[in-house]
Amino acid sequence: xxxxxxxxxxxxxxSSLRCDRFPASRAEGLDRLNAFLPAAGRAYAETRxxxxxxxxxxxVSVLSRYLRYRLITExxxxxxxxxxxxPQGAEKFVHEVxxxxxxxxxxxxxxxxxxxxxxxxxxxxxxxxxxxxLRKALAAAEAGTTxxxxxxxxxxxxxxxxxxxxxxxxxxxxxxxxxxxxPWQLGADFFLRHLIDADxxxxxxxxxxxxxxxxxxxxxxxxxxxxxxxxxxRFEPRGLARSxxxxxxxxxxxxxxxxxxxxxxxxxxxxxxxxxxxxxxSLMPDGAxxxxxxxxxxxGSPEPWxxxxxxxxxVGAAAGDAANRVRERYGxxxxxxxxxxxxxxIAAAQAAGAxxxxxxxxxxxxxxxxxxxxAPELAAAGLPLVRLRRAWDERxxxxxxxxxxxxxxxxxxxxxxxxxxx
Length: 422
Hints:
Helix content: 40-55%
CATH architecture of the largest domain: 3-Layer(aba) Sandwich
CATH superfamily of the largest domain: HUPs
Largest sheet: 5 strands, parallel
CATH topology of the largest domain: Rossmann fold
Distance between the termini: 21 Å
Strand content: 5-15%
Shape: globular
Radius of gyration: 21 Å
Strand order of the largest sheet: 3-2-1-4-5
Number of helices: 18
């Protein structure tokens, strides 16, 4: 397992390439994908684990923020890699992309992992008020003043850039849990508050994996030699934990079936675009009667999202790009709003003459919770909220019930069903 460079938890281009060097648009995401494709074969398989430093990221795709908000999709990336390198050459890159799909599907079928994390995070935050020692240790870890070489650099890099290389994220999480003995929930929260690509599924489950909770008893131990090797000797930390005893917890509920969705939109509709899927033109069925659109850059409640300033800035710009594409595609008005608000959605739908509100299915997380809150109000106003789930998710998510490698055996079959050569 990796906190994957392409799709799950990584995308860092360094201190000289701040977030304004990553224009938040679908066109930019596709351009970056095409620029990286020549390196997405053997070179990626051989070098993806190396963290050469903030200014040297040519060995990774730098696509996670675009994938996170679906400015580009997993299918876009996998199709392009297979076309460029074929199934054998692109195998490692394709699997890294599919870790994102796997985590999304796993959490969708076990949402208790997310709600438990939130409850435990809040409990740990409350404990900070009672424990001066924990407050001091947490402050040092987040500020990068622990004295641990590499770890301190990554903490500062994360705060400054909203970004870390995938391997660095794994090392960081392991040191946080097993060397510093800090609560993993506060580490996952630290990432959520600073990563531009922060994602409930990938972030929560990756931290759980390192801690030995995702795959019970299987932990990830950061070692001095591994860090020295894969950073080219830039970092040689001392005093790291020599063992990683798995954390424990009460068992989660077994996987549930994916929530059933109704039929697609019928008649004139208001398109509601959320930051969970900012590429609605590739999702809406042909012939959909879109009379107007709102693009919500945030969830609002009950869990405010996006969490960090850098993520919020990226999402805000991406929402504007999505609104422009919606106007061009459907020839209708498209306004960007800060958060989901039932009254504003109802007013926009009525002004457009819409009889329903159609939106992309939002996976487990703050946006899904916010949509669940407003759906009854929309229904009371005679506006059913119609959710559409991508065919990619429908195909892959149901198979994410165990470990990744149980899904892995089905990948060639499912890619063939998607019309992709695998």
